[in-house]
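Why does this matter for the project? Reviewers at the last site visit asked to see concrete outputs rather than summary tables. In response, this paragraph embeds two records directly. Each consists of the residue sequence and, immediately after it, the corresponding structure tokens. Nothing has been edited or filtered.
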Amino acid sequence: MATPPDNHWLVLENRHTGEKLRMRRVNDPESGEVLEVEGHLPAATEGPPLHRHFRLREETTVLTGELSAQLDGKMLAIKPGETTVFPPGSRHTWWNAGDEALAFRGRAIPAGDLDRYLQGVFALVNASPTGRPPLFPLAHLLWRHRRTQAVLSPPRALQAVLLPLLVGLGSLLGKYNGSEWPASPSSCRGAPGASGNH
């Protein structure tokens, strides 16, 4: 089966690490709207920080390379042809510890807002000369997705206090004026597909 062209996908690339993601929304007869994901991570490259998705399940199948992962404290090594599942609410992260590029395909079920969240994350990382997301836009992104997505450092209890304070301060300082700031809600429209996005 031919791979659909990029104009049918949301394409994200981390300019610092070379990580690439392609996402699109599709209707599944059993699961409803799901997010299809194709990814590529260069050799010996970190993935996302430890995080949780509260409402969605991620299924990932390795195509080439080896996916190293941590799932609720357990270390995993997923080889080509193998699939792993990150259940809703699980604490997980993944990376490429090998010397070969990692390629994978997966789905987020249901799609939820994962595509819009990741679009914001990549925008923040790419806006920074160091790869460290700018503070005020990051606080805004984490706060508006707090019911569905979470990074686990700093602790959630501390985030619950700090994030609204930072968003309030950022608003007072004019950090969120217009729509040109990194990861603004209007710039994170998500993946094309079933919902008619794009």
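We now turn to the second protein, recorded in exactly the same manner.
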Amino acid sequence: ECAAVLGLSEKLEFHPGKVAGRGNMFKVDQALRIVKTTNVRCDKTNEWIFEKIEAVVNKCNKRAYKFNITGLTEELQLIRYGPGSHYVWHKDFGGGPNSRRKLSIAIQLTDPSGYEGGDLEIWSGGPRPFAAPKEQGTMSIFPSFQLHRVLPVTSGIRYALVGWVNGPPFK
């Protein structure tokens, strides 16, 4: 399945990754994020990806978070991290279109032997951040309001598929 998702990278055009700025404008800011991204739409070819992710997320949410969610209502992002690529501490939740994000997902598509660095770290309030598993096919699911980052890739290429599960605003 990871190979099938990675196969999409050959058919899609990558662009510099953007970050949210003032007034819900998105901009390239390499001090905060250096990656290449492309969007993956839910169409007949890719529908199976969305269905598999939603099935896992629904089970996880039912057991752990119990958030009121509606599903993956945004396109997924296929992200390519090359040497020097990173993303500083940030949240996926905010104002405007990001205010309905409840859960963030990150799927490790690359075999960890294909790159060095690039750890996904999630801050859970302890003395150290949690380092997400790097095994190929691992899906990390966490609240979108939780701080997280991707450390710089030092060699090789890391691919990840990320997305956001939305729902009504938190009360």
